[in-house]
Amino acid sequence: MENTPGWSTRQLADLAGTTERAVRHYHQVGLVPEPERRANGYKRYGVRHLVRVLRIRRLSRLGLSLTRVAELGDADGHPRDVLRALEEELSRDIERLRRTRDEVTSMLRQSAPIDLPPDLGRAVTEAAVSPSDRLLAVVMAQVLGPSVIDAYTHVLRSGGTSSLSPAFDRLPADADGRARQDLAERWSPPAQVLKMFADFPTAREVCADAPCGERHARSAITLAVRELYNPAQIDVLLRVRTRHRAVGAP
């Protein structure tokens, strides 16, 4: 018995390119059966143990969890079904990583914000909006539906409001009513508003397709506006909204 050939745990681990700790773990989780022992009590591993450890390591490197490897049992046959499922999973991962890489590349190339959807982020950057407008865009992107975000992105790209943004940004909190009304009238010409809603009819209901509901969206945007703009600027926004309603907008 003492002269029966076999490998120790260390020798098996070296042959399989792993560690003694890993081999012991495979025993603990039931992936590798305990070998016979020599008369002196030391384990004696054979070729089948080596093959089993190599199989476990290969499948693990391919991405299978030890739980999934255990489900295959001790059969030495080719795990075709499992590998096909793994192939499909890897294809999905590759596609997800490709999209992620493209998005990161776009961010690097265009210095687009990382806290905004790609298209809106590019539009915000190109329009050179104020810091407050940019922060409001972040909130809007989180609570409004895609149709409204598309409409807002379109407005930014059209440059319809960019020429008036500096005047709005400089508007003091104590600006009189005439100054506020003048800015509101210049900022929302009916023709521009009508064109926007013609291009994006679903944007008429600003919060209609909000992912978490209209009430949640309106509450979040109201809080953001109160934090980001002074009273005179908020009054201008309300006047602009009144003009929108006058031409059939929400």
Automatic annotation (TrEMBL):
InterPro entries: DNA-bd_dom_put_sf (IPR009061), MerR-type_HTH_dom (IPR000551), MerR_fam (IPR047057)
Tree of life domain: Bacteria
Family matches, as PANTHER family: HTH MERR-TYPE DOMAIN-CONTAINING PROTEIN, REDOX-CYCLING DRUG-SENSING TRANSCRIPTIONAL ACTIVATOR SOXR
Residues in coiled coil: 80-107
Pfam families: MerR_1 (PF13411)
Keyword Cytoplasm appears in the UniProt entry: no
SMART domains tied to this protein: HTH_MERR
The HTH merR-type domain, residue ranges: 6-75
Keywords: Coiled coil, DNA-binding
Record's protein name: MerR family transcriptional regulator
